[in-house]
Amino acid sequence: MRIDILTLFPEMFQGPFNVSIFKRAVDQDLIEVTIHNIRDYANDKHHIVDDYSYGGGAGMILKPEPIFKAVESIKSDVQFEENIKLPIILLTPQGRLFSQQVALELSEYRHMVLICGRYEGVDERVRQNIANDEISIGDYVLSGGELAAMIVADAVVRLIPGVLGSETSPLDDSHVAGLLEYPQYTRPAVYNEWTVPEILLSGNHAKIAQWRREQAILRTLERRPELLNKANLTLEEKHLVDRLAKQFLSPFSDNDENE
Ligand code: 6GU
Questions:
Q1: Catalytic pick from 93, 154, 213, 224?
Q2: pLDDT per residue over 106-155, tens digit each?
Q3: How many alpha carbons lie under 13 Å from residue 14 in its C-beta half-sphere?
Q4: Counting atoms of ligand 1 from 1, which one is nearest the CA of 143?
Q5: Is residue 145 part of a domain?
Q6: What is the share, in percent, of the chain residues with pLDDT greater than 90?
Q7: 140 lines ligand 1 (CB under 6 A)
Q8: Handedness of CA 135, 140, 146, 150 (dihedral sign)
Q9: Are 21 and 80 members of one domain?
């Protein structure tokens, strides 16, 4: 996958993209990331990228021309084909909410462009005529889209086949199955008198798988019960949820197993 990122602060991307999984993906040519400084596409002498808001009000607005020029340059660079959709995504608190589902959707593309908004906003014509998608990473306000772009890129890149080692499947991740992850332990089996659940040491793989599934369901029920509505649960697991909900979550529960 090719990822082009438009930003006023290219240096912000140096850290996260040069370590670990991301770096390995670049080194193995599984992804190609190009960071573009929006300022380089401003043609005027002073490379001005922002201006006052029409109608007044505090704060500067990102101008449309440099962003338009940067995107045009990327399109011509890759011999943009009209009939292949190229996601051109504006990172903004007004966008659709990012999720594992959105990451999965984006990981199917061969190329994506991320535009990092800054200052008080971006000229509306960028939304209307240049971007074809807008993404927010949550209901809070960041100083700019850069951190959001890194988060989107990270979540998408690790879903590209070959990026994670063969042992780790992204399909086991939290949220993929609609559940939070089960508790995990490594050696030592006893640390400060804190023990690892015995079943994990039993070697009984079927029992372990069942325990993990139940723990994932229980944890999701305790922390993010709304996720259970979308999780793919068997009928048996739905009954388990009902039982657990009664047992652990209801203040009126009498813990009657035979109910
Ligand atoms: Cl994508 N940008 C900014 N500036 N703030 C955000 C965001 C994006 N997502 C959540 N908050």
A1: 93
A2: 999 999 999 999 878 999 999 999 999 999 999 999 999 999 999 999 99
A3: 4
A4: 4
A5: yes
A6: 81
A7: yes
A8: negative
A9: yes
Report how many domains make up the chain.
Answer: 2
Assess if residue 152 is contained within a domain: yes
44-58 pLDDT tens trace: 999 999 999 999 998
**Residues facing 259 on adjacent strands:** none
Domain span at residue 201 reads 190-258
Of the residues 60, 94, 141, which should be mutated to test ligand 1's pocket, given the most ligand atoms within 8 Å of the CB?
141
Residue pair 101/174 in contact by the 8 Å Cβ criterion:
no
Report yes or no on whether pTM surpasses 0.85: yes
> Collapsing DSSP states into helix, strand and coil, what is residue 209?
helix
Nearest ligand 1 atom to the CA of 135 is 1
Q: Kindly name the residue from 120, 154, 214, 237 that is annotated as catalytic.
A: 120
Which atom of ligand 1 is nearest the CA belonging to 91? 1
Which among 135, 142, 154 is the best mutation to test ligand 1's pocket, defined by most ligand atoms within 8 Å of the CB?
Answer: 142
Q: For residue 134, which amino acid is it? A: E
Same domain (yes/no): 137, 215? no
Is residue 101 included in any domain, yes or no? yes
Q: Is the pLDDT of residue 246 over 90?
A: no
